[in-house]
Amino acid sequence: MTSPEMARRCRKERNRRGLSQREVAKRLDVTIQAVSKAENYTARDGMDRFRVKVLEELTGRDVRGPLWEVEEESG
After folding, report:
1. What CA–CA distance (Å, rounded) separates 6 from 51?
2. pLDDT for 27-46, tens place per residue?
3. What angle do CA 39, 75, 73 make, to 5 degrees?
4. Is 38:63 a contact under the CB 8 Å cutoff?
5. In this structure, which of 5, 10, 17, 52 has its CB flanked by the most CB atoms within 10 Å?
6. Rounded to two decimals, what is the model's pTM?
């Protein structure tokens, strides 16, 4: 999954669960700005590890590796 795709997925998963950026930030003990930055990709922003953390928190699953990408394509 590319960085822009991960950013879009972060927002999609948060919205799917009806959570605000503030609620996600509180769950992860980070700032709202960090969550916003994770959802709004900019070139070389260095947020990929954090995006993985957000996605894992929201989905409750390990999101790294090829299985995530295959599942995403089919689901």
Report:
1. 7
2. 999 999 999 999 999 888 88
3. 75
4. no
5. 10
6. 0.79
